[in-house]
Design a protein that fits this description.
Blueprint: H1 2-5, H2 8-29, E1 39-41, E2 71-74, E3 82-89, E4 99-108, E5 113-114, E6 131-132, E7 154-163, H3 176-184, E8 187-197
Antiparallel strand pairs: 1-2, 2-5, 3-4, 3-7, 4-6, 7-8
Length: 199
């Protein structure tokens, strides 16, 4: 037989090749578990094109209605016990650290949407137990986009974190930076929804 006539080193080399090939076949057949497809969006399609005035701020020369848009999400991973939602503008150059426009946390796991206007100060339509943190305007409420005139449109990032804890260990009126930093410690995943606005 050919195998018996081959030198021992050659036969060992052939055996290694066969074993590696066999392992490769087994590895290729093992499927990864399906990943969660966590998605954040708004039922209002307009912000994807241009943020309507009703969602923009009513400060710093802007004259919007300052109403928070409705948000919805799906595909939260198993084990999600609460959500954190933020609105952040990374394009504000004056501060060197962007601008927090909205901070919402302790949103119960059974919730999968926030209604339009939920970000009002002392809101009565946020889900029970939900808290609002302090924005860079200094209040615990939503305040909409208002970039300086003449600047390129800013990117406004709505982000939702699915957490493995029911409550965040942060003080009342915690800042966006503190809420986000604390949330990342127990985050299972996150989703981002970006809109652009300039004036």
């Amino acid at each position: 037989m050919l195998a018996n006539r081959m030198p021992v080193s050659a036969r060992l080399g052939l055996l290694v090749v066969v074993l590696v090939a066999a392992v490769g076949v087994v590895t290729a057949q093992v499927k990864s578990p399906p990943r969660s497809h966590f998605v954040l969006s708004s039922p209002d399609a307009r912000p994807a094109v241009r943020v309507p005035e009703e969602y923009t701020a009513n400060v710093f020369g802007c004259t919007g209605a300052n109403i928070s848009p409705a948000l919805q999400w799906s595909g939260a991973p198993a084990g999600s016990k609460s959500f954190v939602i933020t609105l952040f503008d990374p394009d504000v150059a004056d501060t060197g650290s962007g601008w927090w426009h909205w901070v919402v946390y302790d949103v119960p796991a059974k919730v999968n949407s926030l209604p339009k206007g939920a970000g009002a100060e002392h809101s009565s339509i946020l889900p029970a137990g939900t808290q609002q943190g302090r924005t860079d305007l200094g209040n615990d409420a939503y305040h909409g986009p208002c970039p300086d005139k003449g600047q390129p449109p800013h990117h406004y990032k709505f982000t939702i974190y699915a957490l493995s804890v029911e409550k965040l260990d942060v003080p009342p009126e915690a800042s966006g930076a503190m809420v986000t930093s604390t949330a990342k410690e127990s985050a299972l995943t996150k989703a981002v929804f970006i809109v652009r606005y300039g004036r």
